[in-house]
Amino acid sequence: MPARTWVPPGPLDLHRTLGVLRRGPGDPAFAVRGGELWRASRTPRGPGTLRLAAGADGRVDAEAWGPGGEWLLEQLPELLGEDDDPEALTARHRIVHEARRRHPGVRLARTGLVLESLIPTVLEQKVTSDEAYRAWRLLLQRHGEPAPGPWERMRVMPDPRGWALIPSWEWHRAGVDAKRSGAILRAVRAARRMEEAARMDLADATRRLTAIPGIGEWTAAETLQRALGAPDAITVGDLHLPKIIGYALTGRRGTTDEEMLDLLAPYEGQRHRAARLILLSGRVPPRRAPRFPVGDIARL
Q: What is this structure's pTM?
């Protein structure tokens, strides 16, 4: 059971920095227990589990288990944003300035693992978050493997061959249609090339991911925000984000993607970071319509 203590270069909000990696409250690969964060990953060296706890003096204490445990500890500074530079963003709006003042420890996590972020992001295409979280949970519970370490309920996602061997009826049972499962299967067949994107710049990594049919700009951005910690990977094509950004910055409703990009133009190079801060502000347009109903293709 290797361990490591790491002192971040500045303020670090451990939970908000890593919370974006969690896929719903029942994520079998991510858990919070007693203030500690637990994350189960499939690393280049095999499955591993990482436990993180923030110390009172700002340090982060980490333990790891499994064949991939040493890799997770080696990547710990990158994961927690050692190379991230929050000061690279110059606030152009009061709401962004205030959000950064209130949340100084939010950094952009960099996992260095592409499929780990890509697969659950594909599951989120064109469905509600609850549907996607359910699919991720069921697929890991049925086809993942127990995570190394003391927490028996945690699961590590399948390796590329394991994903490829999931039969069609199991995808259906998890509520995943053929379009999304097909995109995942094409990605895992090109697993090595997908993982290479973790060491590319944002433009090259986006081209690498979107070369796979079924993976578009939205999916690539959501994946690379996590795998690369890319500060400019703004999500385009999202149902809610433009409306939230537009309302927060102008008070107007119904903002389009193009209008959102115009509003974020002063943050070129840091547009994803600016969007994160705006979301942390909590300023969202009041709801006027009921939530979309949750579908379940497994019943069809």
A: 0.93
